[in-house]
Amino acid sequence: MSTMAAPAGNNAASSPLRAATTVGGIAMFARREFRDAIASRWFLLYTLAFTVLAVGVSFLSLSGVGSSGFAGFGRTAAGLLNLIMLIVPLMALTAGAGSIAGERERGTLLYLLAQPVSRTQVLLGKYAGLALALVCSLCIGFGVSAGLLAWRAGGVGVGAYILLIGFTAMLALGMLSVGFVISVVSRRTSVSTGVALFVWLALVFVSDLGLMASSIIFKLRVQEIFGVAILNPLQSFKMGVIVNMNASLDVLGPVGDYASHTFGAVLPWLLASTMVAWIVIPLAAAMVLFVRRQSV
Amino acid sequence: MRRGAVAILFVLLGAAAPLAAHPMSDIEALIDAAEPGGVVLIPPGVYEGNLVIDKPVVLDGQEGAIFDGMESGTVVEVLAEGVTIRGCTIRGSGENVTAEPAGIRVLAGHAVIESNTIKDSLFGIDLRQASDSVIRGNRIACKNFEPARRGDGLRLWWSHNCTVEDNTVLSSRDMVFWYSENLHITRNTVKDSRYGLHFMYSHDTVLEGNELTGNSVGIYLMYSNRITLINNRMLSHRGASGYGIGLKDCDDIVVRGNALLANRVGMYIDNSPSSIGATGTVEQNMIAFNEVGLLATPNTHENVFTRNAFMENEEPAESNGRGRLTRNSFSRDGFGNYWSDYTGFDLDGDGIGDVAYEPRSLFHEMLAVEPNLRLFVHSPAQQAIEFTARALPELQPKSVLVDPAPLARPPEIKLASPPADGAAPVMASLAAGLLLASGGLTVVFGRSPGIPVAPGGRE
């Protein structure tokens, strides 16, 4: 990818392969975005925070047990879940929210769009670069805590751990997509970051608390609670991780039992596909909004 | 040398030719010919049909001696006292649930069932009014049915003073004891079944060193009194019941030195003890990594919990429904339990926390009223609710229990051998792979600029 990006970017019009040009253009922006991201202080801070907290949670949940083999991954995962659900959406939403709006505010978006590339390429390139950077930063956090688990717990539940990483990556990409939607429609980074924080608060706290309250007030039935809950990517993420870990959602009480009984083996795929929908639909929306915009 | 060669020849012959099929009447003839109390050697071969033993003999199966019930009825039925069945493979019972066909059914006492392999049978070993028997070292796997259609791997019915040890039961219904007293149940393994060890109206028994993994419930005692559970291990019991140990209306139970790990509920107590003057003692157990460490119905009382380690349970103790567990004692002689979420301190360093342990959780209080809300465990919203309750004391619920003397350090509890873990290198290489991947990406993509960096860079 890197070898063909350079000529494609330098002289895009003369390239014989249009497909290669499109991909090359995206790759070019992706590299630029990735480089900018890992150089930015915010990103380093998030990575550091995520790593330190992930290691801390892993360590705490394994310490104090003489016979550590039992601890396995389950307990650590429960601790990690909360942490991931707080930090990863925040990280991805703010990164996405800053992307286009930041360029627009600094005036560099004009410069980018003056290049012989389409708006779609710019957007997808920026998305790919940031996505790569996010995954990279998650890999560092998960990698260090995997090392700790291997040392202290003897690596129980490797498969579940890999699936946890996969689901977390999907969560990050989904939230990044939402961040892009916010970014495309915002003029200033302060506004887009504010909106991103609001969305974060809504997804992490308000929707769950609201659903709790409505299930008490309206006496919602289990299927209604489940149906509404999986719309929230964070709940889908949580259920996905738990169902992969325990092969059932019994941990989540009657609603979980209902889901396991009704959907059985399809359940992990159902949850994964809602998460994929959260990646694809907002990204497509961001693309449409960005392409349709006449001005910068 | 020559013996070795002969042995090898035998092995080769055995491997080459399928075992010859014989009618069960061959065995009946051997038994008829034997003296009462004599040893009947069963030569290798498949014996087809059903066998009824009405004479005290020792059936000693040689390697490759197989009884095949041909999918009909009970394979081996013992009617005489003092029969021994050893070293046989028994398979192919019928599957008609009402007749309860078994691999081995014993209807008389003083039987010894030892080192047999039982497979593809509806019930494994079934003792009815067969007191003073020994069931030792058998491997039992039932018919591969869905759980609701399975039979019991081992069942004792009105059979007192029996020893049940070193047996392995896989994928069956229960290892169940009905109306049987004074048993010794030691070092058995039950996996992937319904109830690991199930007691109904069976009193005065010791269960020691049993290993129960991945069943619906590990040990379930019902209406059974004066039972002692020592050094058993209950691991990974999940599902709607999912109890490591369940007690239902049992008096004078002692639970000591057990490990209850990674179950949905470590220990479930339903109205035990139930009689006036009876007690329950739970001491020196390791209760760790469960979703709920201790779950008890609110009417539960007169239990004593001391020197247990409640480690890293999602919820250490919970009342099953509205109510508190304060009618039980969580300390004895000034020694409480270790709670890994205890936030108090031990100023004088005597190993006992200076502040009582009183877990309060608004979220779990809400769960007792609205069980559907359990969907929201492990989420930041749950933390938000707990935080609110701490910030606004008027919302703070009453504590579910009070441990006046919580231990400051986890007590030394010797667990049975931990499970082998060979996956450490895999996990380590996963860690290395992840770090290398992120490092590699940074080096490859983060270096040479394709487009000049935006002026001022991005924050």
Overall shape of chain A: globular
Major protein interface: A-B, 91 and 70 residues
Q: What is the global morphology of chain B?
A: globular
From the alpha carbons, calculate the radius of gyration of chain B and give it in angstroms: 28 Å
Give the integer mean of the pLDDT values of chain B: 88
**Termini distance of chain A?**
29 Å
Order of helices and strands of chain A: HHHHHHHHHHHH
Q: Could you list the spans of chain A in which at least 5 consecutive residues all have pLDDT below 50? A: 1-19, 64-69
Amino-to-carboxy terminus distance of chain B: 82 Å
Number of separate domains of chain B? 2
Helix proportion of chain B: 10-25%
Fraction of residues in β-strands of chain B: 25-35%
Total of DSSP H or I helical runs spanning 4+ residues of chain B? 5
Oligomer: heterodimer
Total discrete domains of chain A: 1
How many strands appear in the DSSP assignment of chain A? 0
Q: How many helical elements of chain A?
A: 12
The main β sheet of chain B shows up as: 14 strands, parallel
What does this protein structure show overall?
The complex is a heterodimer of chains A (296) and B (459). Chain A is mainly α. Chain A has one domain (2-292). Chain A has 12 helices and no strands. In chain A, helix 3 packs antiparallel against helix 4 (74-106), helix 6 (119-152) packs antiparallel against helix 7 and helix 6 runs antiparallel to helix 12. The longest helix of chain A has 34 residues, at 119-152. Chain A is globular and about 55 Å long. Chain A starts with a helix and ends with a helix. Mean pLDDT of chain A is 83; it is low at 1-19 and 64-69. With 459 residues, chain B is an alpha/beta fold. Chain B folds into 2 domains: 18-177 and 187-193; 194-359 and 399-418, no CATH class. Helix content of chain B is 15%, strand content 32%. Chain B contains 5 helices and 38 strands. In chain B, strands 1-3-6-9-12-15-18-21-24-27-30-33-36-38 form a 14-stranded parallel beta sheet. In chain B, strands 2-5-8-11-14-17-20-23-26-29-32-35 form a 12-stranded parallel beta sheet, covered by helices on one side. In chain B, strands 4-7-10-13-16-19-22-25-28-31-34-37 form a 12-stranded parallel beta sheet. The model of chain B is unreliable at 11-16 (pLDDT under 50). At the A-B interface, helix 1, helix 2, helix 3, helix 4 and helix 6 of A face helix 4 and helix 5 of B.
